[in-house]
């Protein structure tokens, strides 16, 4: 049985300001399911990923990642160590009903796209600069798993009108059950400012990308 609320995704309405996106406040079938996934978000198995000024040809960032699905293939070694609810969530995001719901929501044909999925943690000082995703990343869906988020902690998702982090159209706190769908375009600027040193917890999320082969 799916944990992701496919019907809610299907009923959502895409916004176009500042680019194609939708914020879904309740992405799972029940709040209890969302809370269970939050409580079972393991901090094990993550690797630090960082790109700084050494190569300005691509976006700069610092975060911790745990890859679960690569090029459409589930990493069984990683997934089998997860709790049962997380195993089901991985099954959900590679399922056809989920793919069809996102395709209907965004108007993007995802039939031939390959799914990539990874758990991410932003510790203090982690960030990702304003960027548009690679052209082959057709649609991204971000699921969040934090029990509340103080705006003073920074580290929220910023939907931007340009490559300037201050040119912000919308801020999305990474709270449990909230998810955000982003449609890639040349104006789909977004980023995450550094998590504040005063933040007592890591920012936790699951990122799902639909990538054109």
UniProtKB/TrEMBL annotation:
SMART domains: P4Hc. It holds the Pfam family 2OG-FeII_Oxy_3. Keywords: Dioxygenase, Iron, Metal-binding, Oxidoreductase, Vitamin C. InterPro entries: Oxoglu/Fe-dep_dioxygenase_dom (IPR005123), Pro_4_hyd_alph (IPR006620), Pro_4_hyd_alph_FE2OG_OXY (IPR044862), uS12_prolyl_hydroxylase (IPR051842). The keyword Oxidoreductase applies. Residues 109-213 form the Fe2OG dioxygenase domain. Its cofactor is L-ascorbate. Gene3D superfamilies: q2cbj1_9rhob like domain. PROSITE patterns: FE2OG_OXY (PS51471). GO terms for molecular function: dioxygenase activity; iron ion binding; L-ascorbic acid binding; oxidoreductase activity, acting on paired donors, with incorporation or reduction of molecular oxygen. This is SanC. It comes from Streptomyces ansochromogenes. The lineage of its organism: Bacteria, Bacillati, Actinomycetota, Actinomycetes, Kitasatosporales.
